Amino acid sequence: MKKRKKIITVAIDSPAAAGAGTQAKLIAKHYNLYYLDTGKIYRYIGLLRLKNKKKFSHTLVKRKIRTIKMKDLKTKNLLSDNVAVSASIIAKNKKVRDMVHKFQKKCAYFPPIKYAGSVLDGRDITTVQVRDAMFKFFITANLKTRAKRRFKEYKILKKKITFKEVLKSLKNRDKSDRNRKYGPLKKTKDSILINTTKLSRRRCFKKIKAIMDRKLKN
Hints:
9 helices, 5 strands, alpha/beta, Rossmann fold, globular
């Protein structure tokens, strides 16, 4: 797959609720980059699996991925626990991962012409999807801080869940992400570590922006 010349590519890996999605959106807006939340792709397919239990197949997934639109990834239906569980199952299927990877790489290297490049965040972006990205970040935060953030999100959504349950869920998610067979979460040697535990959104973005601006000016 040939890449479009002279585009900015940003690859971000992170554990759940570390703030990577927020920073990716800020980066995309500031530098006019095409943004893709790669985890939403698996949730989309996970939802597809739940809606088509008897007709679900690799052929169906392939067809749907070809016609997927960004608005399909913004529906609230993707936030349910059932979809999350289904997405986790889907993510372990190598054939599905290969199809998703092909779509993600197209977004990374061939974003719409109106954008100056792309920014992707997920679990295996720097290690698998965009290994030669111009900028590679590993965004993290300690478990308790991430659990507090996720718990706050759930409260806004009026979801009945305890902080202890959120903490346990994230702990299990971390273990699963780091030990899965395909595309496990890990920091590459050339990824810049950004710990958001004690950073506000604004301070975190300013830190990332300073790093990017230095390189873009050279």
